[in-house]
Specification:
alpha/beta; eight-stranded mixed β-sheet; binds flavin-adenine dinucleotide
C-alpha cells in the first residue's frame, strides 16, 4: 500500500462530494495512493438528494459502508403521480422486499448524513489523504503525469502536486470539464424550482410514505417523505416569479399551507435550483477524467443524479486501478465514457419524460408503461444496459448488472467476491486456476445461469457482466480477458 507522499500520488480527485468520496474509497480499498482536493471544510448543506437505489447500496457494500448507511435510511414504497383532482395518473410503487440486487429498491436518506458516513469511512485508508479548504486552480498534463495547482484557502498559499490521473468530481460547475471541453448533449429541460426541507414537530402519517408528484400545470409540485421527521416539498416556479422572493419564509409557508403550517414543522433548508438535463459528450482527455455532476445533470424527478455519480465512480474505479498498476493500457479508460454515457442518458431521458407528465398531465411520453388496474399507468423502474465497452466470451449477457444472491454460507455474493472479478459457475464446471478470480459455484447462482442458458458468467468488480460461457472455448476466452495486460475484451 502506498501512502500519499507530500507531492506525488497516483490519483488526484477534485471534489469530496458523494462521487469523489466513493471513488476515493474504491481506490482506498486497493492501496492506490490518492489525494482528494476539496474547497469546503464540511459537506454541502443545501437540500439535494433524498433517494438512492439498490445498485448504489451495492457500491456502498463494496466500500464496506452499506450496513452503517442502511441504519440512517428509510425504505421507500415509491412514487405516485396525481392530477389536480387527486386522480392517480402514474403508479411507480416499488416492491418492499429485498430485490435481486440483495437490497431494497429505493432508500430515502439525508445527503449531508450520507456524505458524513462516506467521509468518516475514508479514515480507514492510509493511502487516501484529503486536503480540504483547497481551491483547485489548474492542471497541466504531460507524458508522465499531471501537475495540479491549488490555493490553500486557510493560508492563501499556492500549492501543487503531481499525479498520474486527475478526476474531476467537482460538481455542476466543474473546472476539469471546462479543461476537457464542455460540449453538452442537451435534452432540453430547463426549469426553476424551489426546494423546501422541513422537520415535522409532530407525527403526520396523513402525509404518507409515498412520494407524490402533483401534476398540476398551473404549479407542478413534489412531496417526499424523508428520514425521521424530515419532509421535502418542491415547487416549480413560474417564469414571472422572482426565485429569491419565493424563498422568503412567508412565501414558503404560503406554498406549504395546503399540507402543513408553522405549528406542524420548522423550516430546515430552502433553496432555488434550475433543473437541467445535460450530458457532456466527452469524459476523458488523456489523464483527465470527469465523474458525477461534472459529467451530467438531471432533473431530480427520478432521484438519480447522485446515483449516476456513484455508478460513474464504480465503473471508473476498477479501471483506473488496473491502468495505474500497469495491468491494462490507458485505452481501458475510454470504455468508461463509452459505457456510462448511454446508461446515464437513458435515466436522464426518462426523468425528462416524467417532467413532462408533471408539467402537463399528458401521459403520451410514457406510452410504453402498462395500464394500472386502478386507472392511470403502472411504471416499472428502467434498467438500461451499459453502452458498448467491454465484453468477452459469450457477449450477449454482457453490459447488464449481475444479481446478488445470498449464498449458502449466509454471505451476499459481492462479499464473497470481494473487490475483484468473480466467476459464477456450475458446480461441476472445471475452471483452471486464475489469480485474482473468485469462483462462486453456490446453488444460489444456478437459477440465474439457467435463465441465461450459460455454464458460467464473469462478473466485473463493478458487478456488471463481462460475458458468459456456454462451453469450454468461451470460458477460456473469459479467463484470458481478465488476465493482466489483456484488453478486457474492449469492443
Ligand atoms: C433538489 C435536488 C434533489 C435531488 N435529489 C436527488 C435524489 O433524490 N437522488 C439522487 O440520486 N440525486 C439527487 N440529486 C442530485 C445529487 O444531489 C447530485 O447529483 C450529487 O450531489 C452530485 O454529487 P457530486 O459528488 O458529483 O457533486 P457535488 O456533490 O456537487 O460535489 C462536488 C464537490 O466539488 C467541490 N469543488 C468544486 N469545484 C472545486 C474546486 N475548484 N476546488 C475544490 N473543490 C471544488 C465542491 O465544493 C463540492 O464539494 C438532487 C439534486 C437536487 C438539486
Amino acid at each position: 500500500m502506498s501512502e500519499p507522499a507530500a507531492n506525488s500520488v497516483e490519483v488526484c480527485i477534485i471534489g469530496y462530494g458523494p462521487t469523489g468520496a466513493t471513488l476515493a474509497s474504491l481506490l482506498g480499498l486497493t492501496g492506490i495512493s490518492t489525494v482528494v482536493i476539496e474547497r469546503q471544510a464540511a459537506p454541502y448543506d443545501l437540500p439535494r438528494a433524498v433517494q438512492f437505489d439498490d445498485e448504489v447500496m451495492r457500491v456502498f457494500q463494496t466500500i464496506g459502508l452499506a450496513d452503517k448507511i442502511a441504519l440512517s435510511t428509510h425504505v421507500s414504497p415509491g412514487m405516485l403521480f396525481k392530477d389536480r383532482e387527486g386522480r392517480l395518473l402514474v403508479d411507480w410503487s416499488r416492491p418492499m422486499e429485498i430485490g435481486p440486487q440483495g437490497w431494497h429498491r429505493s432508500y430515502r436518506f439525508h445527503q449531508p448524513e450520507l456524505e458524513g458516513i462516506l467521509r468518516d469511512g475514508i479514515s480507514r485508508f492510509p493511502n487516501v489523504a484529503v486536503r480540504s479548504c483547497r481551491e483547485f486552480l489548474d492542471a497541466t498534463q504531460d507524458d508522465e503525469g499531471v501537475t495540479v495547482r491549488m490555493r490553500n484557502l486557510t493560508t492563501g498559499e499556492l500549492e501543487s502536486l503531481r499525479c498520474s490521473y486527475l478526476v474531476g468530481a467537482d460538481g455542476a460547475r466543474s473546472s476539469i470539464r471546462e479543461m476537457i471541453g464542455t460540449d453538452w448533449n442537451d435534452l432540453n429541460f430547463n426549469q426553476n424550482w424551489l426546494v423546501v426541507d422541513v422537520c415535522l414537530q409532530r407525527d403526520m402519517p396523513e402525509l404518507g410514505d409515498h412520494s407524490v408528484q402533483y401534476c398540476e400545470p398551473e404549479r407542478p409540485a413534489t412531496y417526499v417523505r424523508g428520514t425521521g421527521q424530515r419532509r421535502r416539498w418542491e415547487f416549480a416556479l413560474l417564469p414571472e416569479e422572482n426565485p429569491e422572493a419565493m424563498a422568503a419564509p412567508d412565501a414558503v409557508w404560503a406554498r406549504l399551507a395546503r399540507w402543513i403550517n408553522p405549528a406542524d414543522a420548522v423550516l430546515e433548508r430552502v433553496a432555488n435550483y434550475t433543473f437541467r438535463a445535460v450530458i457532456n459528450r466527452q469524459w476523458r482527455q488523456g489523464r483527465l477524467l470527469i465523474a458525477g455532476d461534472a459529467a451530467h445533470l438531471t432533473p431530480p424527478f427520478m432521484g438519480q443524479g447522485l446515483c449516476a455519480g456513484i455508478r460513474d465512480a464504480a465503473n471508473l474505479g476498477w479501471k483506473l486501478i488496473r491502468v495505474v498498476r500497469g495491468q491494462s493500457s490507458a485505452a481501458l479508460l475510454d470504455s468508461y465514457g463509452a459505457e456510462r454515457i448511454p446508461h446515464v442518458t437513458a435515466y436522464i431521458a426518462q426523468a425528462v419524460r416524467l417532467g413532462e407528465v408533471i408539467n402537463t398531465c399528458a401521459l403520451e411520453s410514457l406510452a410504453s408503461a402498462a395500464p394500472a388496474p386502478q386507472g392511470g399507468l403502472r411504471l416499472a423502474t428502467i434498467a438500461p444496459s451499459l453502452g458498448p465497452g467491454l465484453a468477452a466470451g459469450w457477449t450477449a449477457p454482457a453490459h447488464r448488472i449481475a444479481p446478488q444472491p445470498t449464498l449458502a454460507t449466509g454471505l451476499r455474493a459481492d462479499d464473497a467476491a470481494g473487490y475483484g472479478f468473480a466467476l459464477f459457475a456450475r458446480p461441476g464446471l472445471p475452471v483452471p486456476p486464475a489469480g485474482h478470480l473468485t469462483v462462486i459455484r453456490d446453488a444460489a447462482v444456478q437459477p440465474w445461469l439457467d435463465e441465461l442458458g450459460a455454464e458460467a458468467a464473469m462478473i466485473r468488480p463493478d458487478r456488471y457482466v463481462l460475458g458468459a460461457a456456454r462451453d469450454h472455448g468461451e470460458l477460456e476466452n473469459l479467463l484470458a480477458a481478465i488476465a493482466p495486460s489483456s484488453s478486457l475484451g474492449a469492443c
